[in-house]
Specification:
Elements lengths: L2 H9 L2 H6 L2 E6 L2 E6 L14 H17 L5 E12 L8 E10 L3 E9 L5 E14 L3
Antiparallel strand pairs: 1-2, 2-4, 3-6, 4-5, 5-6
Length: 135
C-alpha cells in the first residue's frame, strides 16, 4: 500500500485525529509515529496516560501492518504493553515493525520513546485482516 494512503488513513481516523497522531515515516513493514506531549493526554502527576500510550502503540503497530496487508482492513486482536518509565515530555515517538505476517494475522513489535529519547514502553500486538478497506 502506498505510504501517502497509509499516512492519510492514520492521520484522518476520527479517533486518532483527536489524539494528534502524526505519521513520521513509513516503509515496508515499518512505521514511525509521533504525538505531542499535551495536557489532554496526561493523568494525575503530569505523566502521559497509559490509555494514550496504548493508543499510540496500537496505531503504530497497525500502521506497520498496513504496509504489508495488500489493502485489507484489519482489527487489533491483542495488544500487550510493558510500561518501563513514565513519559513526562515530548514529542513522544513510537516505532513499530512487523515481526511476522500470515494469511489472516500479522504481528508487530513497538517501542515508545519520550522527548529525550528514553525508552518508556514496549508493546507486542496481533492484527487480523477482515477484508477490503471499505469493509
Amino acid at each position: 500500500m502506498h505510504k501517502d494512503i497509509i499516512k492519510r488513513l492514520i492521520e484522518e481516523d476520527p479517533f486518532l485525529k483527536n489524539v494528534g497522531i502524526k505519521v513520521m515515516s513509513v516503509s515496508k513493514g515499518r512505521c514511525k509515529i509521533a504525538v505531542e506531549f499535551k495536557e489532554e493526554l496526561t493523568r494525575t502527576g503530569g505523566i502521559m496516560n497509559g490509555g494514550a500510550i496504548a493508543t499510540l502503540a496500537d496505531a503504530t503497530g497497525g500502521c506497520a501492518v498496513l504496509t504489508q496487508n495488500e489493502g485489507r482492513n484489519q482489527v487489533t486482536v491483542d495488544l500487550s504493553i510493558s510500561f518501563l518509565n513514565p513519559i513526562e515530555n515530548g514529542p513522544v515517538i513510537a516505532e513499530g515493525h512487523v515481526t511476522r505476517t500470515g494469511k489472516r494475522l500479522s504481528f508487530a513489535y513497538i517501542e515508545i520513546f519520550d522527548g529525550k529519547g528514553k525508552l518508556c514502553a514496549t508493546a507486542h500486538g496481533t492484527w487480523f485482516f477482515i477484508g477490503g478497506l471499505n469493509q
